[in-house]
Amino acid sequence: MSKNKKVGVMGGTFDPIHYGHLVTAEAARTHFNLDKVIFTPTGKPPHKKGYSVTPAEDRYLMTVLAINSNPYFDISRMEIERPGLTYTVDTLEQFYNELGKDVKLYFISGADAVLDILTWKDVEKVLGYCTFIAATRPGYPVEELNQKLLQIKQMYGQEVYPMEVTGLDISSTDIRRRVKEGLSIKYLLPESVETYIQKSGLYR
Ligand code: ATP
Ligand code: MG
């Protein structure tokens, strides 16, 4: 039976969300003809060590503000409400169960995340639940990404689909640093998110 609906899942810490995330999600939507993309802010990311992640409600609200103008973008509280560390395999399983068999799932990820996918919990299951999309990202060489995709194919027999995205060399780490140092973050993220950061005093 062929599936009738295609839904993308855009995972991330979104601390804060920026145009790199939005451009990537929109590219995946149009390229793979997705009916919608669900932004899913992480609860407790196991990979982010060394700095304390901003409270989930702030990251959630900033994501709501950022996706507001795109009718194809949606948001889920699934990960921020699930207790314990956040693992993508649990998220995909939950979406799979909740959305039903008629929905084909796509997981959207940047090159940096794909490069360390082999350290993820239950990689094979992750790849089984979804069509995995690997977006290019400035600073992460395409050759290295392609090498990794080949390795994944050899290890798990699963295809990960590379997707070229207009390169925006923006990261949340750099935005946090800029705010801390009093530098401008204008044009790196939506104005609504910039205002939220200013008013809440985040990252100072
Ligand atoms: P941090 O610097 O805190 O790690 P980040 O900018 O990498 O933040 P994340 O929330 O870690 O943002 O990323 C969520 C997803 O979006 C990841 O799959 C990541 O690879 C992807 N992504 C983030 N920024 C970009 C970008 N500029 N271009 C393409 N993909 C991106
Ligand atoms: Mg990151």
Oligomer: single chain
What is the strand tally? 6
Large-scale geometry: globular
Q: Which residue ranges are poorly predicted, with pLDDT under 50 across at least 5 consecutive positions? A: none
Which band does the percent of strand residues land in? 15-25%
The biggest beta sheet, please? 6 strands, parallel
Descriptive notes:
By secondary structure, the protein is α/β, with parallel strands linked by helices. 43% of the residues lie in helices and 17% in strands. The protein has helices at 19-31, 56-67, 78-81, 88-99, 111-115, 123-129, 142-156, 172-180, 191-200, and strands at 5-12, 36-41, 73-75, 103-110, 131-135, 160-163. A six-stranded parallel sheet has the order 3-2-1-4-5-6, sandwiched between helices. Strand 5 (131-135), helix 7 (142-156) and strand 6 (160-163) form a beta-alpha-beta unit. The longest helix is centred in the last third of the chain and has 15 residues, at 142-156. The structure holds adenosine-5'-triphosphate (ATP) and magnesium ion. Adenosine-5'-triphosphate binds at residues 12-15, 20-21, 24, 109-110, 112-113, 135, 137, 165, 168, 170-173.
Brief descriptors of the model:
204 residues, alpha/beta, binds magnesium ion, Rossmann fold, binds adenosine-5'-triphosphate, single chain
